[in-house]
Design brief:
Oligomer: single chain
CATH architecture of the largest domain: 3-Layer(aba) Sandwich
Strand content: 5-15%
CATH class of the largest domain: Alpha Beta
Structural class: alpha/beta
Largest sheet: 7 strands, parallel
Order of helices and strands: EHEHEHHHEHEHHEEHEHEEHEHEHHHH
Number of domains: 2
Radius of gyration: 21 Å
Helix content: 40-55%
Number of strands: 12
Strand order of the largest sheet: 3-2-1-4-5-6-7
């Protein structure tokens, strides 16, 4: 069976697809990964076929406007203008993505398509192929959950208005699908009703731990919550002596990273964090990753160690707590290893994860990236380090996650 995996986004958006692709490959399926060019190595390292969706989407996110929109400081007007510029530039990029996906699917004629929420063409392809498309979502609240808004809204308007956010979000998606069909100059008309019915009936797999997002018992059978999926990692990586020495000297280390998130003022954000660490003698490893944090010229090397890339499954078991951007994958990895957690959210779903980890009791509620100051962040970081209940609860969640195994159910959900 031939399965095409389509994911558009940052690295965290690719990871669940590699993990699920490995499950299908073990069962004898042919797997083709259609990702942005920047993630070619992820697919090829997993011995999967790769189809490039080009460089432009990620380059747009890394642009000044992308940084301002996704994690910027400054006025609301600055962010609004950045969003408008992003939208205008993204229209042409989206047209190119749609064209590439159309050509790929026409040439490969797959048996199944597994895709994420940023990929639109699979919805059109699946209109006359019931059961052959599967949406994979690593973020919650894409479908109605009582007392919660759709993930795009992340608020609480009361039960009645909360419920309305789901059809409102679907209305926007329906319009996007119809626009996409026009770009392709499709001769057969697609109605709103067709698209709406597909969105409500298509198979969906939430790659989220039920310990963080329990499946509502009133959901239809096509909606499943099948746990966090982690790919096999064979990494030729060894820690340097300095890192090993640093870890051996300290007992209660924080690990701080913003992952794939960037912002216009990484030095300012890093300086705020380092001032708090040094003032309170908190040892920390800071991961500069994609540049949301940066190595400063002056810092206390006895308390702070900078890295630029490090396997989470190596470092998290050695740390007490993690402060991060709130990506689904990083959230799950931190809790898988029992780390007390605080999120500094940058964009949409990260605010939802911030609320979830606070409600679960594994850490304090974090502050959005463009609002952090030394005065408001310091008490949060001290609470993370000093409140032992966060660590204890995180270890309980880790135990629950360790018992989860949905591999067979994922396979059957896609293939059957």
């Amino acid at each position: 069976m031939k399965v095409i995996f389509i994911s558009v986004g940052t690295r965290g958006d690719m990871e669940p697809f590699i993990a699920i692709g490995e499950i299908l490959k073990e069962k004898g399926c042919q797997v083709i990964c259609a990702f942005p060019e920047q993630f070619r190595n992820l697919a090829e390292d997993a011995n999967m076929e790769f189809y490039s969706l080009g460089l432009k989407f990620i380059e747009l996110l890394d642009s000044d406007d992308g940084k301002a929109a996704l994690g910027g400081s400054g006025s609301g007007l600055r962010k609004m203008l950045a969003y408008i510029k992003l939208a205008l530039r993204q229209t042409e990029i989206n047209k190119e993505l749609v064209s590439k996906l159309y050509d790929l699917i026409e040439s490969e004629n797959p048996d199944r398509i597994v895709y994420n929420g940023k990929a639109i063409y699979p919805i059109i392809w699946g209109l006359n192929k019931k059961g052959k498309t599967v949406l994979v979502s690593p973020v919650p609240y894409m479908h109605y959950v009582k007392n919660n808004t759709h993930v795009a809204f992340n608020s609480n308007y009361g039960s009645f208005l909360n419920k309305l956010t789901y059809p409102l979000a679907n209305f926007g998606l329906i319009m996007t699908v119809r626009i996409t069909a026009k770009w392709l100059k499709m001769t057969k008309k697609i109605t709103r009703k067709q698209i709406k019915n597909a969105l409500l009936s298509n198979k969906v797999i939430y790659t989220i731990s039920p310990s963080l997002f329990p499946r509502p018992d009133y959901w239809n059978e096509n909606l499943k919550v099948l746990g966090y999926q982690e790919r096999h990692k064979i990494i030729n990586w060894q820690p340097d002596k300095g890192l090993n020495d640093f870890i051996s000297k300290h007992n209660q280390i924080l690990f701080i990273t913003f992952g794939s998130m960037t912002n216009p003022k990484p030095e300012e954000k890093t300086n705020i964090i380092i001032e708090i660490l040094e003032r309170n003698k908190i040892p920390a490893i800071i991961n500069t990753a994609s540049g949301g944090l940066t190595r400063l010229k002056k810092f206390d090397a006895e308390l702070i160690y900078f890295v630029s890339e490090i396997p989470y499954d190596w470092i998290f078991p050695k740390t007490y707590g993690v402060i991060h951007h709130g990506g689904s994958g990083t959230t799950h990895m931190a809790l898988k290893y029992g780390c007390a957690t605080m999120i500094i959210p940058h964009i949409i779903d990260q605010f939802v994860w911030n609320r979830i980890i606070y409600n679960v009791g594994v850490g304090p509620k974090g502050i959005r990236i463009n609002k952090i100051t030394r005065n408001n962040l310091e008490p949060k970081m001290l609470e993370l380090v000093n409140n032992r209940s966060f660590k204890q609860k995180a270890e309980q969640v880790a135990t629950q996650m360790g018992k989860e195994n949905f591999r067979e159910e994922i396979y059957k959900s896609i293939i059957e």
